[in-house]
Protein backbone atom coordinates (compact mmCIF):
# COMPACT_ATOMS: atom_id res chain seq x y z
CA UNK A 1 0.00 0.00 0.00
CA UNK A 2 1.39 3.36 -1.03
CA UNK A 3 0.88 6.30 1.34
CA UNK A 4 1.54 9.82 0.08
CA UNK A 5 1.69 13.02 2.13
CA UNK A 6 -0.98 15.60 1.28
CA UNK A 7 0.16 18.34 -1.06
CA UNK A 8 -1.99 21.37 -1.92
CA UNK A 9 -3.42 21.34 -5.45
CA UNK A 10 -1.17 23.15 -7.92
CA UNK A 11 -3.27 22.63 -11.04
CA UNK A 12 -5.26 25.83 -10.68
CA UNK A 13 -8.43 24.01 -11.66
CA UNK A 14 -10.12 24.34 -8.27
CA UNK A 15 -9.67 27.78 -6.71
CA UNK A 16 -9.83 28.23 -2.97
CA UNK A 17 -13.25 29.29 -1.68
CA UNK A 18 -11.66 30.86 1.39
CA UNK A 19 -12.09 30.59 5.16
CA UNK A 20 -15.57 29.91 6.49
CA UNK A 21 -16.93 31.74 9.51
CA UNK A 22 -17.13 28.50 11.46
CA UNK A 23 -13.50 27.64 10.77
CA UNK A 24 -12.39 31.18 11.58
CA UNK A 25 -14.25 31.14 14.90
CA UNK A 26 -12.67 27.81 15.85
CA UNK A 27 -9.21 29.15 15.03
CA UNK A 28 -9.78 32.07 17.43
CA UNK A 29 -11.04 30.07 20.42
CA UNK A 30 -7.60 30.28 22.03
CA UNK A 31 -8.23 34.02 22.54
CA UNK A 32 -10.94 33.09 25.08
CA UNK A 33 -9.62 30.43 27.46
CA UNK A 34 -12.47 31.28 29.88
CA UNK A 35 -15.18 30.56 27.31
CA UNK A 36 -14.65 26.83 26.67
CA UNK A 37 -16.32 27.14 23.26
CA UNK A 38 -19.58 28.74 24.43
CA UNK A 39 -18.86 32.12 22.84
CA UNK A 40 -17.97 30.41 19.58
CA UNK A 41 -21.25 28.52 19.64
CA UNK A 42 -23.13 31.72 20.39
CA UNK A 43 -21.63 33.44 17.35
CA UNK A 44 -22.66 30.44 15.24
CA UNK A 45 -26.23 30.73 16.57
CA UNK A 46 -26.31 34.38 15.54
CA UNK A 47 -24.95 33.48 12.09
CA UNK A 48 -27.64 30.81 11.68
CA UNK A 49 -30.44 33.22 12.59
CA UNK A 50 -29.02 35.83 10.21
CA UNK A 51 -29.12 33.32 7.36
CA UNK A 52 -32.81 32.73 8.04
CA UNK A 53 -33.55 36.47 8.25
CA UNK A 54 -31.60 36.96 5.03
CA UNK A 55 -33.87 34.42 3.36
CA UNK A 56 -36.97 36.15 4.71
CA UNK A 57 -35.87 39.59 3.52
CA UNK A 58 -35.08 38.24 0.05
CA UNK A 59 -38.56 36.79 -0.33
CA UNK A 60 -40.47 39.57 1.44
CA UNK A 61 -42.02 40.96 -1.73
CA UNK A 62 -43.28 37.51 -2.75
CA UNK A 63 -44.50 36.27 0.63
CA UNK A 64 -46.50 39.31 1.79
CA UNK A 65 -44.24 39.90 4.78
CA UNK A 66 -43.31 43.46 3.89
CA UNK A 67 -45.06 46.50 5.29
CA UNK A 68 -46.43 47.37 8.70
CA UNK A 69 -47.48 44.76 11.24
CA UNK A 70 -50.11 47.03 12.79
CA UNK A 71 -48.56 47.39 16.23
CA UNK A 72 -45.97 49.65 17.86
CA UNK A 73 -42.91 48.66 19.86
CA UNK A 74 -41.88 50.02 23.25
CA UNK A 75 -40.35 53.11 21.59
CA UNK A 76 -43.68 53.98 20.02
CA UNK A 77 -42.39 53.08 16.55
CA UNK A 78 -44.63 51.22 14.13
CA UNK A 79 -43.45 47.63 13.86
CA UNK A 80 -42.91 46.17 10.43
CA UNK A 81 -43.77 42.54 9.77
CA UNK A 82 -40.11 41.77 9.29
CA UNK A 83 -39.29 43.36 12.66
CA UNK A 84 -41.50 40.78 14.30
CA UNK A 85 -40.18 37.91 12.17
CA UNK A 86 -36.53 38.80 12.81
CA UNK A 87 -37.18 39.16 16.54
CA UNK A 88 -38.74 35.69 16.67
CA UNK A 89 -35.94 34.13 14.61
CA UNK A 90 -33.11 35.50 16.74
CA UNK A 91 -34.80 34.77 20.07
CA UNK A 92 -35.56 31.23 18.94
CA UNK A 93 -31.99 30.60 17.78
CA UNK A 94 -30.46 32.08 20.93
CA UNK A 95 -32.80 30.18 23.25
CA UNK A 96 -32.14 26.84 21.54
CA UNK A 97 -28.39 27.42 21.44
CA UNK A 98 -28.20 27.17 25.22
CA UNK A 99 -25.45 29.75 25.81
CA UNK A 100 -27.67 32.76 26.62
CA UNK A 101 -29.53 33.44 29.85
CA UNK A 102 -31.23 36.72 28.91
CA UNK A 103 -32.00 38.89 25.88
CA UNK A 104 -32.62 42.63 25.56
CA UNK A 105 -34.41 43.34 22.28
CA UNK A 106 -35.56 46.56 20.68
CA UNK A 107 -38.89 44.87 20.03
CA UNK A 108 -39.55 43.82 23.64
CA UNK A 109 -40.54 46.03 26.55
CA UNK A 110 -38.79 43.95 29.22
CA UNK A 111 -35.79 41.67 29.51
CA UNK A 112 -36.46 38.20 28.12
CA UNK A 113 -35.40 35.69 30.79
CA UNK A 114 -34.72 32.44 28.96
CA UNK A 115 -34.83 30.51 32.25
CA UNK A 116 -31.44 29.07 31.33
CA UNK A 117 -29.52 29.24 34.59
CA UNK A 118 -26.45 27.67 33.02
CA UNK A 119 -26.25 30.37 30.33
CA UNK A 120 -23.16 32.55 30.65
CA UNK A 121 -24.11 35.35 28.28
CA UNK A 122 -26.54 38.23 27.91
CA UNK A 123 -27.46 39.51 24.44
CA UNK A 124 -28.66 43.01 23.51
CA UNK A 125 -30.01 43.07 19.97
CA UNK A 126 -31.78 45.17 17.37
CA UNK A 127 -33.12 42.30 15.25
CA UNK A 128 -33.81 44.41 12.18
CA UNK A 129 -32.42 47.92 11.94
CA UNK A 130 -33.93 50.12 9.23
CA UNK A 131 -36.77 47.71 8.52
CA UNK A 132 -39.01 50.45 7.10
CA UNK A 133 -36.64 50.46 4.11
CA UNK A 134 -37.46 46.86 3.17
CA UNK A 135 -40.43 47.88 1.02
CA UNK A 136 -38.16 49.98 -1.20
CA UNK A 137 -35.34 47.41 -1.37
CA UNK A 138 -32.78 49.41 0.61
CA UNK A 139 -30.14 47.79 2.81
CA UNK A 140 -31.15 46.87 6.37
CA UNK A 141 -29.34 45.08 9.18
CA UNK A 142 -29.08 43.38 12.57
CA UNK A 143 -27.00 44.76 15.45
CA UNK A 144 -25.93 42.78 18.52
CA UNK A 145 -23.88 43.06 21.72
CA UNK A 146 -22.69 40.14 23.86
CA UNK A 147 -21.93 40.41 27.58
CA UNK A 148 -20.89 37.88 30.20
CA UNK A 149 -23.33 37.67 33.09
CA UNK A 150 -22.04 39.01 36.41
CA UNK A 151 -23.97 36.82 38.87
CA UNK A 152 -23.01 33.19 39.55
CA UNK A 153 -24.09 30.50 37.10
CA UNK A 154 -27.26 28.84 38.36
CA UNK A 155 -28.66 31.91 40.10
CA UNK A 156 -31.58 34.05 38.82
CA UNK A 157 -30.84 36.93 36.45
CA UNK A 158 -30.21 40.24 38.21
CA UNK A 159 -30.11 43.86 37.07
CA UNK A 160 -26.31 43.88 37.23
CA UNK A 161 -26.21 41.18 34.54
CA UNK A 162 -28.17 43.40 32.18
CA UNK A 163 -27.22 47.01 32.84
CA UNK A 164 -23.56 46.85 31.84
CA UNK A 165 -21.59 49.62 30.09
CA UNK A 166 -20.21 48.97 26.63
CA UNK A 167 -16.71 48.46 28.00
CA UNK A 168 -17.94 45.10 29.34
CA UNK A 169 -18.83 43.68 25.93
CA UNK A 170 -17.02 40.47 25.04
CA UNK A 171 -18.20 40.68 21.43
CA UNK A 172 -20.40 42.76 19.17
CA UNK A 173 -21.33 42.81 15.54
CA UNK A 174 -23.81 43.52 12.83
CA UNK A 175 -25.27 41.80 9.79
CA UNK A 176 -25.89 43.86 6.66
CA UNK A 177 -28.57 42.59 4.28
CA UNK A 178 -27.83 44.39 1.04
CA UNK A 179 -26.49 43.65 -2.44
CA UNK A 180 -24.62 40.95 -0.57
CA UNK A 181 -25.13 39.84 3.01
CA UNK A 182 -22.25 40.49 5.39
CA UNK A 183 -21.56 39.64 9.01
CA UNK A 184 -19.00 41.89 10.72
CA UNK A 185 -17.94 41.28 14.30
CA UNK A 186 -15.26 41.83 16.91
CA UNK A 187 -14.30 39.98 20.05
CA UNK A 188 -11.81 42.65 21.09
CA UNK A 189 -9.07 41.37 18.80
CA UNK A 190 -9.73 43.39 15.67
CA UNK A 191 -12.68 43.47 13.28
CA UNK A 192 -13.39 40.91 10.56
CA UNK A 193 -16.09 40.79 7.90
CA UNK A 194 -17.67 37.74 6.29
CA UNK A 195 -19.75 37.63 3.10
CA UNK A 196 -22.57 35.11 2.70
CA UNK A 197 -22.27 32.71 -0.23
CA UNK A 198 -25.85 31.60 -0.82
CA UNK A 199 -25.13 28.60 -3.03
CA UNK A 200 -22.98 27.06 -0.29
CA UNK A 201 -24.95 28.46 2.66
CA UNK A 202 -21.78 29.70 4.33
CA UNK A 203 -20.20 32.97 5.43
CA UNK A 204 -16.67 33.36 4.08
CA UNK A 205 -13.97 35.72 5.34
CA UNK A 206 -13.92 38.59 2.84
CA UNK A 207 -12.73 41.58 4.88
CA UNK A 208 -9.96 40.53 7.29
CA UNK A 209 -8.69 42.95 9.93
CA UNK A 210 -10.82 45.93 8.93
CA UNK A 211 -9.16 49.27 9.65
CA UNK A 212 -11.14 52.48 9.38
CA UNK A 213 -9.41 55.36 7.56
CA UNK A 214 -8.31 58.07 10.00
CA UNK A 215 -10.22 60.64 7.98
CA UNK A 216 -12.62 60.70 5.08
CA UNK A 217 -14.89 62.84 2.92
CA UNK A 218 -18.36 61.46 3.73
CA UNK A 219 -20.83 62.77 6.29
CA UNK A 220 -24.05 60.98 7.18
CA UNK A 221 -26.80 62.86 8.97
CA UNK A 222 -30.53 63.42 8.53
CA UNK A 223 -30.47 67.01 7.31
CA UNK A 224 -34.25 67.11 7.39
CA UNK A 225 -34.00 67.70 11.15
CA UNK A 226 -31.48 70.54 10.96
CA UNK A 227 -33.91 73.14 12.28
CA UNK A 228 -33.84 71.23 15.57
CA UNK A 229 -30.04 70.99 15.83
CA UNK A 230 -27.77 72.96 18.11
CA UNK A 231 -25.98 75.80 16.23
CA UNK A 232 -22.63 74.01 16.58
CA UNK A 233 -23.87 71.04 14.57
CA UNK A 234 -24.96 73.34 11.77
CA UNK A 235 -21.54 74.99 11.84
CA UNK A 236 -19.81 71.64 11.45
CA UNK A 237 -22.07 70.67 8.54
CA UNK A 238 -21.32 74.01 6.86
CA UNK A 239 -17.61 73.23 7.22
CA UNK A 240 -18.16 69.81 5.63
CA UNK A 241 -19.89 71.42 2.68
CA UNK A 242 -17.13 74.00 2.28
CA UNK A 243 -14.69 71.09 1.99
CA UNK A 244 -16.99 69.53 -0.61
CA UNK A 245 -17.57 66.41 1.44
CA UNK A 246 -20.19 64.02 0.07
CA UNK A 247 -23.52 63.71 1.91
CA UNK A 248 -24.56 60.06 2.17
CA UNK A 249 -27.53 59.09 4.34
CA UNK A 250 -29.42 55.84 3.81
CA UNK A 251 -31.57 55.83 6.93
CA UNK A 252 -30.36 52.38 7.96
CA UNK A 253 -27.79 52.83 10.71
CA UNK A 254 -25.94 49.61 9.85
CA UNK A 255 -25.63 50.54 6.17
CA UNK A 256 -24.44 54.10 6.87
CA UNK A 257 -21.96 52.90 9.49
CA UNK A 258 -20.62 50.09 7.29
CA UNK A 259 -19.92 52.40 4.36
CA UNK A 260 -18.13 54.94 6.51
CA UNK A 261 -16.14 52.23 8.31
CA UNK A 262 -14.72 51.00 5.01
CA UNK A 263 -14.41 54.27 3.09
CA UNK A 264 -13.86 56.85 5.82
CA UNK A 265 -16.58 59.13 7.09
CA UNK A 266 -18.67 60.25 10.04
CA UNK A 267 -22.19 59.37 11.10
CA UNK A 268 -24.02 61.84 13.34
CA UNK A 269 -27.37 61.56 15.06
CA UNK A 270 -27.33 64.55 17.42
CA UNK A 271 -29.68 65.60 20.17
CA UNK A 272 -32.61 67.59 18.79
CA UNK A 273 -35.50 69.58 20.22
CA UNK A 274 -37.75 66.58 19.62
CA UNK A 275 -35.22 64.08 21.01
CA UNK A 276 -33.04 65.97 23.51
CA UNK A 277 -31.40 62.73 24.63
CA UNK A 278 -30.79 61.57 21.09
CA UNK A 279 -32.74 58.91 19.24
CA UNK A 280 -30.48 55.88 18.88
CA UNK A 281 -30.52 53.24 21.60
CA UNK A 282 -27.43 52.84 23.73
CA UNK A 283 -27.58 49.17 24.66
CA UNK A 284 -28.28 47.50 21.32
CA UNK A 285 -27.21 50.05 18.73
CA UNK A 286 -24.57 52.54 19.90
CA UNK A 287 -22.56 50.21 22.17
CA UNK A 288 -22.21 47.48 19.58
CA UNK A 289 -21.07 49.81 16.81
CA UNK A 290 -18.81 51.78 19.15
CA UNK A 291 -16.97 48.58 20.11
CA UNK A 292 -16.46 47.74 16.44
CA UNK A 293 -15.43 51.31 15.63
CA UNK A 294 -12.77 51.42 18.32
CA UNK A 295 -11.41 48.01 17.36
CA UNK A 296 -11.06 49.30 13.79
CA UNK A 297 -9.30 52.49 14.87
CA UNK A 298 -12.34 54.77 14.70
CA UNK A 299 -14.09 56.73 17.47
CA UNK A 300 -17.57 56.88 19.02
CA UNK A 301 -18.89 59.62 21.32
CA UNK A 302 -22.21 61.01 22.53
CA UNK A 303 -20.77 64.50 21.99
CA UNK A 304 -19.41 64.65 25.50
CA UNK A 305 -17.92 61.30 26.45
CA UNK A 306 -16.89 57.94 25.05
CA UNK A 307 -19.99 55.87 24.20
CA UNK A 308 -18.56 52.70 25.77
CA UNK A 309 -18.17 54.36 29.17
CA UNK A 310 -21.82 55.40 29.54
CA UNK A 311 -23.51 53.51 32.37
CA UNK A 312 -26.99 52.51 31.14
CA UNK A 313 -29.89 53.28 33.43
CA UNK A 314 -32.73 52.05 31.22
CA UNK A 315 -33.11 49.14 28.80
CA UNK A 316 -34.14 51.43 25.95
CA UNK A 317 -31.97 54.41 26.89
CA UNK A 318 -31.28 56.77 24.01
CA UNK A 319 -28.10 58.61 23.17
CA UNK A 320 -26.72 61.08 20.64
CA UNK A 321 -24.05 59.48 18.45
CA UNK A 322 -20.94 60.79 16.70
CA UNK A 323 -19.16 57.81 15.18
CA UNK A 324 -16.61 57.28 12.44
CA UNK A 325 -13.12 58.21 11.33
CA UNK A 326 -11.03 59.55 14.17
CA UNK A 327 -10.09 62.93 12.72
CA UNK A 328 -13.62 63.66 11.51
CA UNK A 329 -15.18 62.88 14.87
CA UNK A 330 -12.53 64.96 16.60
CA UNK A 331 -13.33 67.93 14.36
CA UNK A 332 -17.08 67.53 14.85
CA UNK A 333 -16.66 67.50 18.61
CA UNK A 334 -14.48 70.58 18.49
CA UNK A 335 -17.33 72.42 16.78
CA UNK A 336 -19.68 71.18 19.47
CA UNK A 337 -17.28 72.78 21.99
CA UNK A 338 -16.79 69.49 23.82
CA UNK A 339 -13.60 67.85 25.00
CA UNK A 340 -12.56 65.64 22.12
CA UNK A 341 -9.20 64.67 23.59
CA UNK A 342 -10.79 62.49 26.28
CA UNK A 343 -11.93 59.90 23.74
CA UNK A 344 -9.11 60.00 21.19
UniProtKB/TrEMBL annotation:
Q: Which gene encodes it?
A: fbp
Give the EC number(s) listed in the UniProt record. 3.1.3.11
Q: Which UniProt keywords apply?
A: Carbohydrate metabolism, Cytoplasm, Hydrolase, Magnesium, Metal-binding
Against InterPro entries, the record matches this protein to:
FBPase_C_dom (IPR044015), FBPase_class-1 (IPR000146), FBPase_N (IPR033391), FBPtase (IPR028343)
Which sites bind substrate?
129-132, 222, 249, 279
Entries under Gene3D superfamilies matching the protein = 3.40.190.80, Fructose-1,6-Bisphosphatase, subunit A, domain 1 (3.30.540.10)
Q: What sequence ranges are listed for the domain Fructose-1-6-bisphosphatase class I N-terminal?
A: 20-208
Catalysed reactions, as listed in the record: beta-D-fructose 1,6-bisphosphate + H2O = beta-D-fructose 6-phosphate + phosphate
Fill in the subunit field for this protein: Homotetramer.
| Protein name as annotated | Fructose-1,6-bisphosphatase class 1
Domain Fructose-1-6-bisphosphatase class 1 C-terminal stretches = 213-335
Q: What is its main location?
A: cytoplasm
Q: In which pathway does it act?
A: Carbohydrate biosynthesis
NCBIfam families (UniProt xref)? PRK09293.1-1
Give the PANTHER family listed for this entry. FRUCTOSE-1,6-BISPHOSPHATASE-RELATED, SEDOHEPTULOSE-1,7-BISPHOSPHATASE, CHLOROPLASTIC
Q: Where does this one sit in the cell? A: Cytoplasm
Tell me one GO molecular function of this protein.
fructose 1,6-bisphosphate 1-phosphatase activity
> In which residues is Mg(2+) 2 bound?
126, 129, 285
Question: What cofactor(s) does the depicted protein rely on?
Answer: Mg(2+)
Indicate yes or no for the key word Nucleotidyltransferase: no
Cofactor binding notes: Binds 2 magnesium ions per subunit.
Can you tell which superkingdom this protein's organism belongs to? Bacteria
- The record lists Mg(2+) 1 as bound by 106, 126, 128
Q: Which family does it belong to?
A: Belongs to the FBPase class 1 family.
**Signal sequence, renumbered to the chain:** none
Amino acid sequence: MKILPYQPDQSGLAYSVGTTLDRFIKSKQRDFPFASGELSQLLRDIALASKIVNRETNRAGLANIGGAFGQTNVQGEEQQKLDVIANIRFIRALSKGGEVCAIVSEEEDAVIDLQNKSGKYVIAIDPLDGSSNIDVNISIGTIFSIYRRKTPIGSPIQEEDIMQPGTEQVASGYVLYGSSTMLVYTTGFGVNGFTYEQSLGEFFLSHPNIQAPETGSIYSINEGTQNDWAPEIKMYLDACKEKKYAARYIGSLVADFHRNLLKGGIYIYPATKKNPNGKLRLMYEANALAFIAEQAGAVASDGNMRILEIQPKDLHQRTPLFIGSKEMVKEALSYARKTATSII
